[in-house]
Amino acid sequence: MTTEKALNESHSIDPGDPRVTPLELQIDRAKGLRIRWSDGVESSYPLNYLRKHCPCATCRSARQTPVSTALSPGISLPILPPGIERATQLSDASLVGRYAINIIWGDGHDTGIYDFRYLRQIAPTPDNGE
Ligand SMILES: [Zn+2]
């Protein structure tokens, strides 16, 4: 009776899924993040790409807000603040348990916790076509 419901939810990946379990994880200030997944796929994420996909609430809502949000009419603000260079620089990174990586950016932004399921979803590789 619950079978149908389970099928509908098969969208969310099981935590034990090799597709979302990193075998190897490397993060490099120049090359960005590279993950080799347990299913043999390798994904690499440039740092600016990761910053653009920062999953924290602040960045999510910033992405959803149109850039043209009028703060003061007549003054056009640049899309990215002057600190953007630092914003895409890696300051530090650490694992959060076994399910996520926390990236700390050069501008001090440290609330981005990239869980592996999310990383696999946004992986810029052609293999994850679902
Ligand atoms: Zn963020």
Strand order of the largest sheet: 1-2-3
Strand content: 25-35%
Number of distinct beta strands: 6
Main sheet makeup = 3 strands, antiparallel
Spatial gap, N to C terminus: 27 Å
The distinct bound ligands, ions and cofactors come out as:
zinc ion
Shape: globular
**Count of individual domains:** 1
The low-confidence parts are 5-11
User: Quick one: CATH class?
Assistant: Alpha Beta
Helical content, roughly? 10-25%
Count every helix, treating DSSP H or I runs of 4 or more residues as helices: 5
Task: Supply Rg.
Answer: 17 Å
Structural class: alpha+beta
What does this protein look like?
The protein has a single domain (10-65, 78-125), classed as NE0471 N-terminal domain-like (2-Layer Sandwich), CATH 3.30.2020. The longest helix has 8 residues, at 57-64. It has 130 residues and is of the alpha+beta class. The model is unreliable at 5-11 (pLDDT under 50). The protein has helices at 3-8, 47-52, 57-64, 84-87, 116-122, and strands at residues 22-28, 32-37, 42-45, 90-96, 100-105, 112-115. A hairpin with a 6-residue loop joins β5 and β6. 24% of the residues lie in helices and 26% in strands. The structure holds zinc ion. Residues 54, 56, 58-59, 109, 111-112 line the site of zinc ion.
